[in-house]
């Protein structure tokens, strides 16, 4: 598949590069599309040979993005070592549950100084590790970045105007990723708070589930605004206690991503919450979704961790009781509404500790 000229008019002003995208799901496909349209040669790795064959033949990933045609110099492959060896920059969009295993199996294929960027918004079960920490452990000789923001895959694939954040310690990594991805419909802002950007992307999935529940229950607009804003207070309280910069939560990777996933049924996490709010059981909702909803795993890990370190997260606790403890939604809402009335912005007015 090679149609480089068709794509050079899409806004890319930089010379073409060889890049790799690992993960053939919705987000890997969306980012492959941006990179391909920007004129880069994309070594697009997935584990399913039939899927790679289909993309090579038709340009379409019908399982994850039906009707979306990938244009440009796209090389679908099931050979990860080959994809990585040819790439200057590697983007990883593999769900958090499989992330370490895939990287570890191929750790020798990465080169010294190669830029590796995680696109994954999740947390590893054992040790509460974020994906950039896994990359640091498995391929420490690489330069690592994290891309996160309000980035619904389907909208990016439709070339809807979108912005995201590249977080990396090294300014060259930030600039390289901005140059590779930026175009007339996709803007890449920079941040140096890697931990905050990455944790924000994982945490907001929990509140997207809460928002889906609220939508299923036909809650009013006031309630939706309350949930989003208190979600922001709760996730930033937790993240700051672990070392994130509170200001990151005012940016695209914080409040930006929270807004998009809490207000859109295009979010898979929102859809899970909506289904449960309509009475469907969690397992059936996940099966029916057929794609990853990281929030259901993140919820468990954050509940455990917040309790271990003594951080008050009433929405996390309430959602956990609904999804995993069989609590009635009505009882949880009542207990949240009747809790001690407290500080709005606790970075200005500290919370009253009451429990
Ligand atoms: N979709 C979105 O809008 C966005 C997603 N993200 C994040 O990107 C990450 C990936 O999500 P997304 O692409 O949407 O997920 P999807 O559910 O759309 O696709 C999952 C992909 O991961 C692959 N996969 C699953 N297990 C393994 C494994 N063991 N080894 C190799 N590949 C595996 C699947 O392959 P197979 O089909 O063969 O099972 C499939 O290609 C998530 O962390 C998500 O939060 C971030 C921003 C936006
Ligand atoms: O992270 C996302 C948008 O920024 C995608 O959210 P979902 O995984 O809930 O679809």
From TrEMBL:
Positions of the Glycerol-3-phosphate dehydrogenase NAD-dependent N-terminal domain: 19-172
Keyword Ribonucleoprotein: no
GO molecular function: glycerol-3-phosphate dehydrogenase (NAD+) activity; glycerol-3-phosphate dehydrogenase (NADP+) activity; NAD binding
Binding site for substrate: 121, 268-269
Residues spanning the membrane: none
Pathway(s) it belongs to: Membrane lipid metabolism; glycerophospholipid metabolism
Catalytic activity, EC: 1.1.1.94
Entry's Gene Ontology cellular component terms: cytosol
GO BP terms in the entry: carbohydrate metabolic process; glycerol-3-phosphate biosynthetic process; glycerol-3-phosphate catabolic process; glycerophospholipid biosynthetic process
Entry keyword set: Cytoplasm, Lipid biosynthesis, Lipid metabolism, NAD, NADP, Nucleotide-binding, Oxidoreductase, Phospholipid biosynthesis, Phospholipid metabolism
Active site, UniProt feature: 204
Record: residues binding NADPH: 26-27, 47, 64, 121, 153, 268, 292, 294
Amino acids binding sn-glycerol 3-phosphate: 121, 149, 204, 257, 267-269
UniProt enzyme class: oxidoreductase
Purpose of the protein: Catalyzes the reduction of the glycolytic intermediate dihydroxyacetone phosphate (DHAP) to sn-glycerol 3-phosphate (G3P), the key precursor for phospholipid synthesis.
Similarity comment: family membership: Belongs to the NAD-dependent glycerol-3-phosphate dehydrogenase family.
Record PANTHER family: GLYCEROL-3-PHOSPHATE DEHYDROGENASE, GLYCEROL-3-PHOSPHATE DEHYDROGENASE [NAD(+)] 2, CHLOROPLASTIC
Name the record gives this protein: Glycerol-3-phosphate dehydrogenase [NAD(P)+]
Source organism (scientific name): Marinobacter pelagius
